[in-house]
């Protein structure tokens, strides 16, 4: 079997703190079952964060409207970044990791350095974002180096001439389905993304991406992306898979069908939605959100646009249950609250309790009725399997942890 490849991440909690770590090789010779790791940096973005709920909602509404990769760059709360090399010899760029788009582009805040492997395709690229901003420029092919074991030849890559991004970010590394590249590059139907090229060039044995996050407020706030397989050491049960939904527009993304209950009370019948690392919160269709708000007793906080509850209400909070395929996944009361140590980052009161479930802004039936964002994914391991058109989940050591 071709060995899987991993990207692991460490979280720096202060706002915009950036931890840059070089790629580390295993001290032991690599075998067919070993992995190679490249450390990511994870930052909490306070620049441009006027309101995290509004930012997440703008991102998803743009996706509902059919945007090819609708990501609100300046308003992402949790920023997972990697330093990747482009060219030979490589120049390194800090790029944001996101499963909600599939393009790779660089050139923001740091110019593209051409080498012998750089080839101008003569085409242009353009991507519109959820906040009305955009990025555009020339499309090249070049060698992309994630680490010494993850080197991609002739990868299509955008070189930005116009863009606006978070300070310290030079571009994007998209890990979403190939359909998301349609219409982004001139004279081109679809652009082969990184995962597809890793597979086609024999670097990984299957187009499978495993994603692990630990809670931002935990003592070991780390994460890991595994290419070509999932990391069995990160899960406490089996991976359970469901097919990609057939309902549009969720089917364009990593979309699944699920139903949700608050305690014993159903709040969303089986509908289509997406799993998205680029979305911080858990978003629900308006009618489902209103049922959740009523059940929890939460009131909308003006400063954060998050639901706010009292200590007494928190003590009475029930679990949320996500039924995906044949299994039900429990999101505990503690997993439903914003990390209290980060309250002030979202302009909240340090001593208050806020919920991480928010309104998507549309009633159910839109074809994208929920988003299982970061605060769902930090409690469950997720697997994105292009080869078999499916998404999988498993419990981890953090599923029932009390960290917030």
TL;DR of this structure?
This protein has 404 residues and is mainly β. The chain is built from 5 helices and 24 strands.
Describe the structure.
Residues 1-25 form the signal peptide. InterPro entries: Aspartic_peptidase_A1 (IPR001461), Pepsin-like_dom (IPR034164), PEPTIDASE_A1 (IPR033121), Peptidase_aspartic_dom_sf (IPR021109). It comes from Suillus plorans. This is Acid protease. The chain has a 7-stranded mixed β-sheet. Strands 3-4-9-5-8-7 form a 6-stranded mixed beta barrel. It has a 3-stranded antiparallel β-sheet with strand order 16-17-20. Helix content is 10%, strand content 38%. The chain is mostly beta strands and 404 residues long. The model is unreliable at 1-37 and 67-76 (pLDDT under 50). The chain is built from 5 helices and 24 strands.
Question: What is the element string, with H for helices and E for strands?
Answer: EEHEEEEEEEHEEEEEEHEEHEEEEEHEE
Q: State the separation between the terminal residues, measured CA to CA.
A: 40 Å
Number of strands: 24
Q: Biggest β-sheet, characterized?
A: 7 strands, mixed
InterPro entries: Aspartic_peptidase_A1, Pepsin-like_dom, PEPTIDASE_A1, Peptidase_aspartic_dom_sf
Organism: Suillus plorans
GO molecular function: aspartic-type endopeptidase activity
Active site: 98, 276
């Amino acid at each position: 079997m071709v060995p899987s490849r991993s990207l692991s991440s460490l979280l720096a909690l202060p706002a915009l703190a950036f931890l840059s770590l070089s790629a580390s090789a295993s001290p032991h010779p690599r075998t067919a079952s070993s992995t190679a790791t490249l450390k990511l940096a994870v930052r909490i973005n306070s620049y441009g964060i006027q309101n995290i709920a509004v930012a997440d909602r703008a991102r998803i509404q743009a996706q509902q409207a059919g945007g090819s990769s609708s990501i609100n760059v300046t308003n992402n709360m949790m920023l997972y970044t990697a330093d990747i090399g482009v060219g030979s010899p490589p120049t390194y760029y800090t790029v944001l990791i996101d499963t909600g788009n599939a393009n790779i582009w660089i050139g923001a805040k740091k110019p593209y350095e051409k080498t012998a492997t750089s080839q101008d395709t003569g085409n242009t690229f353009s991507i519109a974002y959820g906040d009305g901003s955009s990025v555009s420029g020339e499309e090249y092919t070049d060698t992309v180096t994630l680490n010494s074991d993850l080197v991609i030849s002739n990868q299509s890559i955008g070189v930005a001439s116009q863009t606006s991004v978070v300070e310290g970010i030079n571009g994007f590394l998209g890990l979403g389905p190939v359909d998301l590249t349609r219409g982004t590059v001139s004279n081109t139907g679809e652009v082969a993304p990184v995962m597809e090229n890793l597979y086609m060039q024999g670097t990984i044995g299957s187009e499978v991406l495993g994603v692990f996050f630990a809670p931002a407020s935990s003592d070991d706030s780390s994460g890991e992306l595994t290419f070509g397989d999932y990391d069995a050491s990160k899960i406490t049960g089996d991976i359970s898979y469901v097919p990609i939904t057939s309902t549009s527009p969720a089917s364009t993304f990593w979309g699944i069908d699920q139903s949700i209950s608050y305690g014993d009370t159903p709040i969303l019948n089986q509908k289509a939605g997406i799993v998205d690392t680029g979305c911080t919160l858990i978003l629900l269709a308006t009618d489902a959100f209103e049922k959740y708000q009523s059940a929890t007793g939460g009131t909308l906080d003006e400063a954060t646009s998050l639901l706010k509850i009292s200590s007494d209400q928190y003590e009475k909070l029930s679990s949320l249950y996500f039924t995906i395929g044949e299994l039900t996944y429990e999101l505990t009361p503690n997993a439903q609250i914003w990390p209290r140590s980060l309250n002030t980052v979202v302009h909240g009161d340090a001593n208050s309790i806020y919920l991480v479930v928010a309104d998507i802004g549309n009633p159910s039936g839109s074809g994208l009725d929920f988003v299982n964002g970061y605060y769902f994914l930090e409690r469950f391991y997720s697997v994105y399997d292009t080869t078999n058109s499916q998404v999988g989940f498993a419990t981890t050591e953090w599923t029932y942890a009390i960290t917030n």
